[in-house]
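Bench notes, afternoon.
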Amino acid sequence: MARFTVLLLALFSFAAFGASSERERFIERMVEEEGFERDRVIAWLEDARHDEEVIERISAPAEKVLDWGEYREIFLTPERLKQGRAFMLEHRETLARAERTYGVPAELVTAIIGIETYYGRHAGNDRVLDALVTLGFGYPPRADFFRDELRHFLLLAREQGFDPREPMGSYAGAMGYGQFIASSYRHYAVDFNGDGTVDLFDDPVDAIGSVAHYFHAHDWQRGAPVAMPLAEWRGPVGNTRLLCLRVEDSVRHWIVHGNFDVITRYNHSDLYAMAAWSLAQRLKEAP
């Protein structure tokens, strides 16, 4: 028991030392490479709260623990469909312009925003700084990724002129109507209303344009197929793959195309992509 206790303490000490070392390297990078003031970066890191619940949630997302039947019940609801059609009606001109500009269907852009934030109503209850610091220094499986997202987030805050301690988002540090992570915000967000700023937190016009631009930048093909049940497929194999989705004790088979895989670039889950496409198809139907 004594040896076990000593070993456990040693492991904890190693983990703490490792996290401390990574913090120091991160601070140095932000100062030397990105031009931040050392005291300011230190203050932000010290202000961030480590949140074990964030680690628990990212370790078991719905995409990993639910089957298709359970997952689709979350998003393909009458109320989400009703609110989605209202969103499309309210923003029909912006959605049409985004579709003309980027080739991405209005109903798919709407579905993405509907799944991510219920059309802007629920953009997240976690402070982005807390989430990114927690994951960047306390979640070894993806720590490198989240430390880089923390870097992008601090750069975004400087570019956009906001205090990095203020934005709220998801447990993974995603933000705004479309739940862009910081690197995506910096690379793919667009000023779609032409007011000189890129605002995905409060501006649905910029959000619509940015989601469409994201898909365009990841090779969405205008007018190309996305997915269909295997029983309905009559074409050549081409750029397709077979997708098997479980619903209770049965398996549904779909043929999915390159555009389906573009949706998975937004969220690396076939369940997510199928939910987005299915909601989009329902939104496209007449009320």
